[in-house]
Design a protein that fits this description.
By secondary structure, this protein is an alpha/beta fold. The protein contains 16 helices and 13 strands. The longest helix has 19 residues. It is globular and about 55 Å long.
């Protein structure tokens, strides 16, 4: 029995769900604890766009009254949902007042699944406008990294990552079109899983960013990430099976010219490989074959995805979009006119990646999660398109190719950088390897457990009841 005399803030999702199912606590008490912390401390990190205070207490009471409480995988677990995902009764903000959609009259399927498993949605978390950028801010607020509040938590699921790293919720929903789960997870020292194509219901934007975008989970432990993924994917939750000896490809090569990994990023990969070798896996240096044209194809698709989403807004709203967004959208319109966004390009890259894994006999690829430390947290939303593009591509080049391929990928912490910020690596696998990636991440966690929350959190947020 887990006993907490003061607060449930800082507990894992598994601990909370187990305690609620056993009757050691109630969903109502757990949610009240987390709401107290959000009220007191979200002003520091700016993770939430809207908090559903009264509504979440009412929903927690409903969970406590469930006759099948023992069957709810997330019984009483407070969760946050990224603000581009419909939640009944709330606008779908999409990162700014200009991009905001009307109040939703029903939940997105992934929200329905979370609630169906007993989770309680505390609110929606901030993201950059239209989910385009790897920093999170707008004219209203700057979302900050709990590890160092002068740094960004990344983007576009920056609010979700900040909320988890600060202990304001144990797990959070995010989505990932070109790294938008994995980049914030790496910035904030938590686990972030982007499932492979079609594994979890998408329904993100106009066309799921041409199939690049997937819904996934952010958590402080592999076990919680696995639990959240199982719920989102509609899978029966079962224990992860430790993998037998694997052949691990290790690559430091950046997919973006001029954005090499810094010394801390390289050390993170070395540390992860050392841990995997200790578990009996074989590792070999092998770089994916990033073709010269890949970058241009990814950029064209990124631009066009933003253009398609913006086209759904009325003309007055389009005119109120941030300057950097309008430039991005204009480039997307040009890419579409010129026929630069082609299904065949993604299919060809997907097959090329599949052949690379199979031809080398690789089970898993390990790369840096980031090339450099998270950028400073300030008003990126008011800066130029060029300034945003430069900072985004230089610090976070490793994620995008795997969205273009539709392969599952996961970020896992591996200690701390020399500057005191978290270090992390990316694990990539072929289609259908989500559980394998989680199991490998679990071996890293077992060998070198990381700090689950940013220094000072959630002790800072936890107050006696």
């Amino acid at each position: 029995m887990l006993h907490r005399s003061t607060t449930w803030v800082g507990a894992t999702a598994r601990e909370i769900a187990r305690a609620v199912r056993r009757g050691d606590t109630s969903a109502t008490a757990v949610v009240a604890d987390h709401l107290d912390s959000i009220r007191a401390y979200d002003r520091i990190v700016g993770a939430f766009r809207e908090v559903r205070a009264a509504e979440s207490i009412a929903e927690a009471e409903t969970v406590d009254e469930q006759p099948d409480l023992g069957n709810l995988a997330l019984a009483g677990v407070p969760v946050a949902v990224k603000e581009n995902t419909p939640v009944t009764g709330l606008p779908t903000w999409n990162g700014s007042s200009a991009a905001r959609r009307p109040v939703a009259d029903k939940d997105h399927e992934v929200v329905r699944r979370l609630r169906g498993a007993g989770a309680v949605v505390l609110g929606v978390t901030r993201m950059p406008e239209l989910g385009i950028w790897a920093t999170t801010d707008d004219a209203e607020a700057i979302t900050r990294n709990p590890w160092r509040t002068d740094r960004t938590p990344g983007g576009s699921s920056g609010g979700s990552a900040a909320a988890v790293a600060a202990g304001l919720v144990p797990i959070a929903h995010g989505n990932d079109g070109l790294g938008s789960i994995r980049i914030p997870a790496a910035c904030c020292g938590i686990v972030g899983l982007k499932p492979g194509l079609g594994t979890v219901p998408a329904g993100i934007g106009v066309n799921d960013w041409y199939g690049l975008a997937e819904n996934g989970i952010l958590a402080t432990t592999v076990a919680d990430a696995h639990l959240g993924y199982s719920v989102l994917a509609g899978r029966t939750h079962a224990a992860l099976t430790p993998p037998a000896t694997l052949r691990v490809a290790v690559s430091l090569r950046s997919p973006v010219a001029g954005a090499p990994p810094d010394a801390d990023a390289r050390k993170g990969v070395s540390d992860a490989v050392r841990l995997l070798l200790a578990h009996g896996h074989a590792a070999v240096r092998a770089d994916p074959s990033y073709p010269p044209a890949l970058g241009a194809r990814v950029l064209a698709t990124w631009f066009a995805a933003a253009g398609q989403d913006a086209a759904e807004l009325d003309p007055a709203a389009q005119a109120r979009l941030q300057s950097r967004t309008r430039r991005h959208v204009a480039l997307g319109e040009a890419a579409l006119r010129r026929g630069l966004v082609r299904d065949g390009d993604r299919a060809t890259w997907r097959e090329r990646c599949r052949n690379w894994f199979a031809g080398g006999g690789f089970d898993v690829l390990v790369t840096p999660a980031l090339a450099a430390a998270p950028p400073v947290a300030h008003g990126w939303s008011s800066r130029s398109w060029a300034a945003n593009m430069l900072v985004n591509t230089r610090y976070a080049p490793y994620a995008a190719p795997w969205n273009f391929a539709g392969f599952p990928a996961l970020v896992v912490p591996v200690g701390v950088r020399g500057d005191g910020l978290p270090a992390a690596v990316q694990l990539v696998g072929p289609p259908g390897s989500e559980l394998l990636l989680l199991a490998v991440a679990g071996q890293i966690e077992q060998a070198a457990p990381w700090r689950r929350h940013a220094p000072g959190w959630p002790r800072m947020a936890a107050r006696p009841r």
